[in-house]
């Protein structure tokens, strides 16, 4: 029987490797969130657009993305797309998969945020002859952002916690590195625990930041002087 | 009679199963000030909202400034108006709303300069100079850097008027602009409109429940009921000697005569 003991020396030895892998995890999350916000906003606007065909197509596309597992989407992008001549690195694949998958979720958040802005704001904008684009950019979105912050933040944290799925396409993120360390040293306790603790720390920090950003955000919306 | 600046011809408008206008006809001459009075749900506000293109129509024609509002000529036939056409038509119209609809995330000054800068392409300097003049006109020069939520209802509505005027419309639509105000704040808003009517030439169309104001300011008063003009005429005639029973009943209820 193997006796499980916590080995601090081993912890200090592997910590630098895991922290360096944390950079990959954070980078994937950061780029993934930027893409998700962009995709989410485009989906949300298209679903409110004038073309009924586009609204229906976007709706079913979103349903499809949200109703199939992220891992299958990751595999598809990484193993199937090369057959169509599109090969991407694990990081690029991961960022696209996370960004599009969570973009589909965020579009619902953005849509309800946009719809939460008083209808009178649209009417005043039209009476002032502003274009739809200017109305979104200057009037509607600045007021819609604040109510969107908590849900958007939660999805980004959820995305962060899903980055280990990218280990399946050999991205050297935290869990993948911990697994390699474990198999090389026949010790899994410390690496996996460290990864878990780091995820916990980052998630708590992110949750606190989101709360802080929301509180600091003006109630009337993003100020335009 | 000269060419009217606004003309409704046989206009149809429905909301679901509710018919608002069924063959509605109406005309307004240039620089005429017309008050529309009548019970709620009679289509008064819908009339203004259709003119401002906030609501479409289900039939008929509307002319504004000699051009069809909701239709345009295309290869010799009338087709539904394009965005570009609506954009051009809206340029003549300005609207002030019952609930102000100011932009809460913008200063008073930015509320007024936003559209002239974006739509008319004015420079910030030009737009701000015009905003300052307009704020002086409505007596709010000291509030340029305030936010709408820091203003009283009356002040908000005066900003609403300045914002509409900044686009230099030739037709001003006022939709129950004092209905959401505390009684003691009504006069400061009406004073602004009084001065406008006196000093500038505007076509003004106002939906109002302020009977004394309507009587004082209007060239013509229209009494609306069930999507029709039941009676119209000079304010003295309507207010002192209404002919129709429905007009009488309405005015009695309102003025306690």
TrEMBL record, chain A:
Keywords: Amino-acid transport, Cell membrane, Membrane, Transmembrane, Transmembrane helix, Transport. It comes from Marinomonas arenicola. The keyword Iron-sulfur does not apply. It holds the Pfam family BPD_transp_1. This is Ectoine/hydroxyectoine ABC transporter permease subunit EhuD. It is a multi-pass membrane protein. The gene is ehuD. Residues 22-210 form the ABC transmembrane type-1 domain. InterPro entries: AA_ABC_transptr_permease_3TM, ArtM/GltK/GlnP/TcyL/YhdX-like, Ectoine_EhuD, MetI-like, MetI-like_sf. The keyword Ribosomal protein does not apply. Its main location: membrane. Belongs to the binding-protein-dependent transport system permease family. HisMQ subfamily. The chain crosses the membrane at residues 24-46, 58-81, 192-210. It is found in: Cell inner membrane; Cell membrane. Gene3D superfamilies: MetI-like.
Automatic annotation (TrEMBL), chain B:
It comes from the Bacteria. SUPFAM superfamilies: P-loop containing nucleoside triphosphate hydrolases (SSF52540). It holds the Pfam family ABC_tran. Residues 6-251 form the ABC transporter domain. One of its GO terms (molecular function) is ATP binding. PROSITE patterns: ABC_TRANSPORTER_1, ABC_TRANSPORTER_2. It is found in: Cell inner membrane. Keywords: Amino-acid transport, ATP-binding, Cell membrane, Membrane, Nucleotide-binding, Transport. Gene3D superfamilies: P-loop containing nucleotide triphosphate hydrolases (3.40.50.300). It is a peripheral membrane protein. The keyword Ribonucleoprotein does not apply. InterPro entries: AAA+_ATPase (IPR003593), ABC_ATPase_HisP-typ (IPR030679), ABC_transporter-like_ATP-bd (IPR003439), ABC_transporter-like_CS (IPR017871), Ectoine_EhuA (IPR014343), MetN_ABC_transporter-like (IPR050086), P-loop_NTPase (IPR027417). Belongs to the ABC transporter superfamily. PANTHER family: AMINO ACID IMPORT ATP-BINDING PROTEIN, GLUTAMATE_ASPARTATE IMPORT ATP-BINDING PROTEIN GLTL. This is Ectoine/hydroxyectoine ABC transporter ATP-binding protein EhuA. It comes from Marinomonas arenicola. The gene is ehuA.
């Amino acid at each position: 029987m193997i006796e499980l003991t916590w080995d601090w020396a081993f912890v200090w030895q592997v910590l630098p490797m895991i922290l360096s892998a944390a950079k990959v995890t954070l980078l994937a999350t950061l780029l993934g969130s930027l893409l998700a916000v962009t995709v989410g906003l485009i989906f949300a606007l298209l679903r409110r657009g004038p073309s009924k065909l586009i609204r229906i197509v976007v709706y079913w596309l979103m349903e499809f993305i949200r109703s199939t597992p992220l891992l299958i989407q990751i595999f598809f992008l990484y193993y199937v797309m090369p057959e169509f001549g599109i090969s991407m690195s694990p990081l690029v694949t991961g960022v696209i998969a996370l960004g599009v998958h969570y973009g589909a979720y965020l579009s619902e958040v953005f849509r309800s945020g946009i719809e939460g802005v008083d209808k009178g704001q649209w009417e005043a904008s039209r009476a002032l002859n502003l274009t739809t684009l200017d109305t979104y950019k200057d009037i509607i979105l600045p007021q819609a952002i604040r109510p969107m912050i908590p849900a958007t933040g939660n999805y980004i944290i959820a995305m962060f916690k899903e980055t280990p799925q990218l280990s399946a396409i050999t991205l050297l993120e935290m869990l993948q590195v911990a697994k390699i360390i474990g198999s090389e040293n026949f010790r899994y306790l410390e690496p996996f625990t460290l990864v878990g603790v780091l995820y916990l720390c980052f998630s708590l920090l992110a949750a606190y930041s989101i709360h802080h950003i929301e509180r600091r955000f003006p109630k009337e919306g993003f100020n335009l002087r | 009679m000269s060419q009217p600046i606004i003309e409704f011809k046989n206009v149809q408008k429905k909301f679901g199963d509710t018919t608002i206008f069924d063959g509605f006809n109406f005309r307004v001459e240039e620089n005429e000030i017309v008050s529309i009075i009548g019970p709620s749900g009679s289509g008064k506000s819908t009339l203004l909202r259709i003119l401002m293109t906030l609501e479409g129509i289900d039939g008929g024609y509307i002319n504004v400034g000699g051009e069809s509002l909701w239709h345009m000529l295309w290869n010799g036939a009338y087709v539904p108006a394009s965005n570009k056409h609506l954009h051009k038509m809206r340029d003549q119209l300005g609207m002030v709303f019952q609930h102000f609809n100011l932009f809460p995330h913008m200063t008073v000054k930015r509320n007024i300069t936003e559209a002239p800068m974006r739509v008319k392409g004015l420079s910030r300097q030009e737009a701000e100079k015009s905003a300052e003049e307009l704020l002086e006109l409505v007596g709010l020069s000291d509030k340029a850097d305030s936010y709408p939520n820091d203003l009283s209802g009356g002040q908000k509505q005066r900003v609403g008027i300045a914002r509409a005027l900044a686009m230099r419309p030739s037709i001003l639509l006022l939709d129950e602009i004092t209905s959401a105000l505390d009684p003691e704040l009504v006069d400061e808003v009406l004073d602004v409109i009084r001065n406008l009517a006196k000093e500038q030439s505007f076509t003004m169309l106002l939906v109002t429940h302020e009977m004394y104001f309507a009587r004082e300011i209007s060239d013509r008063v229209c009494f609306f009921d069930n999507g029709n003009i039941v009676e119209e005429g000079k304010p003295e005639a309507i207010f002192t000697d209404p002919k129709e029973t429905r007009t009488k009943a309405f005015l009695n209820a309102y003025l306690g005569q």
